């Protein structure tokens, strides 16, 4: 594959209640995705645990721990980068929703704690309060791959355009969001947000959901997908377990930015998005 291209695979994994089965399944699917030529493979939010506040304390582990070590071993065995969705992380008396990123040597190269807590109330449809037992992270997380800088957010982080814009200002060309939208917000916002973040920043956006389990307490929307810097959905699936692939093309990012040069046309004299 040309140096300007990178094949990514997103794993829309069926997550169940048994942690060891989830870990085994993730490793099996990483093997399959590596066999499909992927250089970077990403898992969904909470790949080792059902998504839900009652599960977070029960499934939480330190990092490294059982679930994340298995990702490091898989990255090394199959010679790929692994973006490990997320796991409930325990550190001291706090819990976080945390994504780890692993390199082909099996080393952890980044750790992102979900920055924005998913606390919502859509009357009669869904109420969720992550902050009842999770704490937010306080950092932006980027990773320098050999030919592409990537930015990581987790699910609700995708709703905050400033975060994506900060990543694009940092030089990211691909944003990855392991996420688990639901049957209310999924159909309404999942694709729209990805296309918005992609178009605003002229980057690729990949969002990775668990497969839908209609018997779960929190029913995931699915529809894992990749959006191009032109705002087009270039790879997607329905709600069932699946691996989807896309070839991210950095020359195409440059081309889109040359054709419609909004990133150079910003009025920094009138407004700015900056980190603190
Ligand atoms: N689960 C999330 O963090 C976010 C979500 O489902 C939404 O924003 O909608």
UniProtKB/TrEMBL annotation:
Keyword annotations: Hydrolase
Any Pfam family the entry gives: CN_hydrolase
SUPFAM superfamilies referenced in this protein's UniProt entry, alphabetically: Carbon-nitrogen hydrolase (SSF56317)
InterPro entries membership: C-N_Hydrolase, C-N_Hydrolase_sf, Nit1/2_C-N_Hydrolase, UPF0012_CS
GO process annotations (BP): asparagine metabolic process; glutamine metabolic process; oxaloacetate metabolic process
Coiled-coil features, chain-numbered ranges: none
CDD domains xref list: nit (cd07572)
Any one of the GO CC terms: mitochondrion
Residue ranges constituting the CN hydrolase domain according to the UniProt record: 6-250
UniProt KW Hydrolase keyword: yes
Catalytic activity: 2-oxosuccinamate + H2O = oxaloacetate + NH4(+); 2-oxoglutaramate + H2O = 2-oxoglutarate + NH4(+)
Domain of life, source organism: Eukaryota
Assigned EC number: 3.5.1.3
Gene Ontology molecular function: omega-amidase activity
Assigned protein family: Belongs to the carbon-nitrogen hydrolase superfamily. NIT1/NIT2 family.
Descriptive protein name: omega-amidase
């Amino acid at each position: 594959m040309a140096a300007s291209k990178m094949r990514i695979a997103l794993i829309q994994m069926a997550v169940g209640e048994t942690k060891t089965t989830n870990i085994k399944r993730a490793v099996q699917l990483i093997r399959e995705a590596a066999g499909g030529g992927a250089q970077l493979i990403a898992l969904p939010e909470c790949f080792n645990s059902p998504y839900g506040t009652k599960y977070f304390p029960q499934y939480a582990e330190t990092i490294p721990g059982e679930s994340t070590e298995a990702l490091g071993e898989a990255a090394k065995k199959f010679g790929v980068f692994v973006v490990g969705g997320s796991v409930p992380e325990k550190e001291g008396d706090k819990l976080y929703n945390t994504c780890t990123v692993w390199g082909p040597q099996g080393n952890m190269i980044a750790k992102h704690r979900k920055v924005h807590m998913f606390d919502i109330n859509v009357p009669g449809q869904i109420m969720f309060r992550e902050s009842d037992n999770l704490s937010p992270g306080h950092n932006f997380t980027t990773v320098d791959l050999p030919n592409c800088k990537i930015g990581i957010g987790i699910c609700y982080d995708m709703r905050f355009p400033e975060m994506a814009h900060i990543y694009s200002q940092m030089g990211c060309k691909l944003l990855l969001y392991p996420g688990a939208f639901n049957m209310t917000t999924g159909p309404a916002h999942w694709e729209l947000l990805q296309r918005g973040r992609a178009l605003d920043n002229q980057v690729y956006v990949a969002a990775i959901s668990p497969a839908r389990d209609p018997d779960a307490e929190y029913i995931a929307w699915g529809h894992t997908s990749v959006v191009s810097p032109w705002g087009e959905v270039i790879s997607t699936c329905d709600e069932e377990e699946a691996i989807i692939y896309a070839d991210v093309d950095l020359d195409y990012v440059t081309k889109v930015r040359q054709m419609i040069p909004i990133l150079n046309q910003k009025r920094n004299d009138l407004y700015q998005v900056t980190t603190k």
